[in-house]
Design brief:
This protein is α+β, with helices and mostly antiparallel strands and 138 residues long. It is 38% helix and 20% strand. A 4-stranded mixed sheet has the order 1-2-5-6, with helices on both faces. It has a two-stranded antiparallel ribbon with strand order 3-4. Helix 3 links the parallel strand 5 and strand 6. It starts with a helix and ends in a 6-residue tail after the last helix.
Amino acid sequence: MTESDIQAMVADYLRLRYPSVLFHSDFGSGIKLTMGQAIKQKRLNGGRRSWPDMFIAEPRTVREDGDKFYYAGLFIELKKPGTRILTRKGTLVSNEHIREQFDMLESLRQAGYKAEFAVGFDEAKNIIDEYLGHDGRS
C-alpha cells in the first residue's frame, strides 16, 4: 500500500463519515516531478517541501490528558505502514525528509493547529475520529 492509496482511503472516509467537513488533500505529494515542476511546487508552497498531506479545516476544542486545547484545524502527514518515525529509544529517526516533516508539524502546532504523523489508514482514522468526534457529525 502506498501513501497515495492511504490518502485516497482517508479522503473517502472523510466524505462518508464526516460529509460536511471541509478538507484538502495534497495530491502532488509523493509523485515524481520534473525539476521544473518541483521548483514551481516548492515556490507555490512558500519555499517549503514538507507540508503535510491532509488538512481538515475544522476548528475544535479537544480534551487531551485532562486539559482542553483549541486547534484551528488538523494537519496529517500520512505514512505507509511500516514507516518508522521514532527509534526504539523514542528519538526521531535520522531520515532527513522525516525530520523536515517533523519540524513542519511542530511549526504548525506552534501556530495553533493539531498536526500529527499517521502511519497507515487505521492510525489516520483514529486521529480524525478523536479530533472530530465519534458521532459522524461535524
